[in-house]
């Protein structure tokens, strides 16, 4: 099965962009969360500067109405879950809100009243700031950032993929298709891409491919000529060998015929000589022939 380079690039771009987006978003959200915590601590400092002296005086003078008004005013502020004033023995003077809860920033401020260069600790001021609002803002920000960054990542990824497709992959596909159809033995049209002439890497690849094709054609022509010459030489040598073989066969036939004739003459001569010898022997010894 043919694997698409464009799909691989899209997956890699999306994965890398998502990882980068997740890391940068997490870092940014962590910074924002730390800033929100810093703002909560700053609000405690502002409350301390604005109300601690008045509360200390009210506790010293047992002005519960003033204490109540101040604590209710502080509790109405955002993120304040609990405020209260307690004696040193943890006896409550006045409090507003719910003191229980784990997701809070708890702060304790001593109430020191100055009289005649003498310090009197009249109690402790407790304030609890809830992290629920901060956490909810963080969750909302996470969803918003992820949605925004995710949408931006997809848009940027598809734009990058389109640019890669337009400038690179479509030309690679055309080059691959050209090479698959290529037959060097035939008169192929040189490779040309549907793009403006540019002195870039793709243009270098196209030039090298066309140069290689020309060289291969030249090599094939040379090999074809050499092959034809070799075939002609083989034919000529074969013809000479056949001619020589025919001559040798004719010579061999002549030699065989001459040898056969000579052997026949020799045999006839030997037969006549043998016959004459027998006759001579019969003349020399005639008695041997009488019974």
What does this protein look like?
This protein is α+β, with helices and mostly antiparallel strands and about 290 residues long. It has two domains: about 5-155, no CATH class; about 200-285. It contains four helices and four strands; from the N terminus they run ααββββαα. The chain has helices at about 5-60, 65-75, 130-180, 200-285, and strands at about 80-85, 90-95, 105-115, 120-130. It has a four-stranded antiparallel beta sheet with strand order 2-1-4-3. A hairpin with a 2-residue loop joins strand 3 (about 105-115) and strand 4. The longest helix has about 80 residues, at about 200-285. The model has no long low-confidence stretch (mean pLDDT about 80).
What is the secondary structure topology, with strand pairs?
Elements (H helix, E strand, L loop, with lengths): L4 H56 L3 H12 L4 E7 L5 E6 L6 E12 L2 E13 L1 H50 L19 H84 L7
Antiparallel strand pairs: 1-2, 1-4, 3-4
Helix pairs in contact: 1-2, 1-3
What's the number of domains? 2
Give me the Rg, rounded: 59 Å
What is the 3D form? Answer: rod-shaped
Strand order of the largest sheet: 2-1-4-3
Order of helices and strands: HHEEEEHH
How many E-type strands? 4
Report the total helices: 4
| Low-pLDDT sequence parts | none
Relative strand content: 5-15%
Mean pLDDT, as a whole number? 82
Briefly note the structural class of the backbone: alpha+beta
Distance between the termini: 115 Å
* Proportion of residues in helical segments: 55-70%
Described by strand count, sense and barrel closure, the largest sheet is: 4 strands, antiparallel
């Amino acid at each position: 099965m043919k694997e698409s380079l464009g799909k691989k690039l899209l997956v890699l771009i999306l994965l890398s962009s998502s990882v980068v987006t997740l890391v940068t978003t997490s870092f940014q959200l962590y910074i924002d969360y730390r800033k929100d915590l810093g703002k909560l601590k700053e609000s405690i400092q502002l409350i301390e500067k604005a109300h601690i002296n008045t509360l200390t005086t009210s506790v010293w003078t047992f002005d519960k109405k003033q204490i109540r008004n101040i604590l209710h005013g502080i509790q109405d502020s955002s993120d304040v879950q609990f405020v209260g004033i307690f004696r040193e023995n943890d006896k409550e003077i006045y409090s507003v809100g719910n003191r229980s809860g784990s997701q809070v920033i708890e702060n304790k401020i001593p109430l020191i009243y100055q009289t005649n260069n003498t310090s009197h600790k009249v109690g402790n001021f407790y304030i609890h700031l809830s992290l629920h609002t901060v956490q909810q803002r963080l969750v909302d920000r996470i969803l918003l950032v992820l949605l925004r960054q995710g949408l931006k990542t997809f848009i940027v990824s598809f734009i990058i993929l389109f640019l890669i497709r337009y400038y690179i992959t479509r030309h690679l596909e055309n080059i691959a298709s050209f090479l698959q159809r290529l037959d060097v033995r035939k008169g192929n049209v040189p490779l040309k891409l549907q793009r403006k002439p540019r002195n870039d890497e793709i243009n270098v690849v196209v030039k090298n491919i066309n140069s290689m094709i020309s060289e291969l054609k030249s090599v094939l022509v040379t090999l074809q000529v050499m092959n034809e010459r070799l075939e002609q030489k083989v034919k000529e040598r074969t013809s000479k060998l056949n001619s020589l073989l025919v001559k040798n066969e004719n010579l061999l036939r002549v030699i065989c015929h001459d040898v056969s004739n000579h052997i026949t003459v020799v045999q006839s001569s030997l037969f006549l000589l043998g016959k004459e010898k027998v006759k001579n022997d019969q003349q020399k010894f005639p008695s041997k022939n009488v019974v």
